[in-house]
Amino acid sequence: MTEVVFPASVPELTDAHALLRAHEAEDAPRIAEQCQDPESVRWTTVPRPYGDQEAREFLELIEAKWNDPEGARYWAVTDANEADHPFLGTVDLRPIAPGAAEVGFGLHPDARGRGLMASAVRLACRWWFDAGGTRVHWRAERGNFASWRVAWSCGFRMHATVPDSLLSVHADRAVDAWVGSLGADDVMEASTPWEDPPELTSPDGAVRLRPWRDSDIEAIEEPDPDQPAHVMPARGVLDSATFPEWLLTRRERMASGTMMSWCVADASTDRCLGEALVFSHHGTLDDDTAELGYQVLPSARRRGVATTAARALAAHALASKPHGGMGLRRLVAVTAEDNVGSNRVLDTAGFTIWGTETAADALPDGRTVDAIHWELLADS
Q: So what CATH class is 13-183?
């Protein structure tokens, strides 16, 4: 019996969107282009520099792995609807234990933003499971949201962030990694929402709620030293010294479907004035109730920014989905009884008090303050 070797050993996999085929020598220039792309350089361990020689060596590696009965399996990603199926990326499965493999993938810049890699990963995972595999693992450097979004859309469950567990060539050190997995019986579809905040403008046109940008750090100030610690958890306060980690954490929660955070910006200058957010302590924002939060940078206070932002966000949160809103039934908020400014914001925005939590916070001087619970209903 003649042994089947590469490329004949590579099964062609396809759906209505992607087609996975064996790599070809003609793919080398496109492989080199992909591996020179800034995003590929930033988030992967491709050799630096990367040229035609490295691409040819990669193709030789792929052939050797396919000819090894226990080797990793690589496919070239192409568009099923394009003639001649030019190279658009690579997806691979690397066995790590009986029944278990780790998935890897990378896409050429020309092909990004059209859902192609998600189709490719589903095809590769189905092939693994049909061959008797039981689980596919995924990991990525913390911050690589493009990779997480592919895994999320394919039904991978996020398990944890593991500190200092991944080598980053970019950082030349161990970095934190997101880890997740997909089981053979799991549905290959997103199981939680991915919250991308839409841009909102206040009725008076003075304030715009928009997605955060890394460059917003230029506007972030040091926290107000006179703000009592019980008014807001320290980890949530906007602070120029901690803003990168603060923003990364916010983005992680939005990717998990448990929060939506907006930068509150001056509509005329686009400069950051503070934050407005909705979040859920239990469950996701697909539920019918969420909590409202807001904060304003020290230099922007006493200008009605918090009230304007709270009103705009509450209106969006409680509007029905057919009308462009979040479709929530109930919005809640919690304040300290001595937080006069925040209590005034909620009262002005139409919230009503439904309960009081006695002695919820103990202050440094020994006094205690109650927590006030507020709510606003969609039909109120």
A: alpha beta
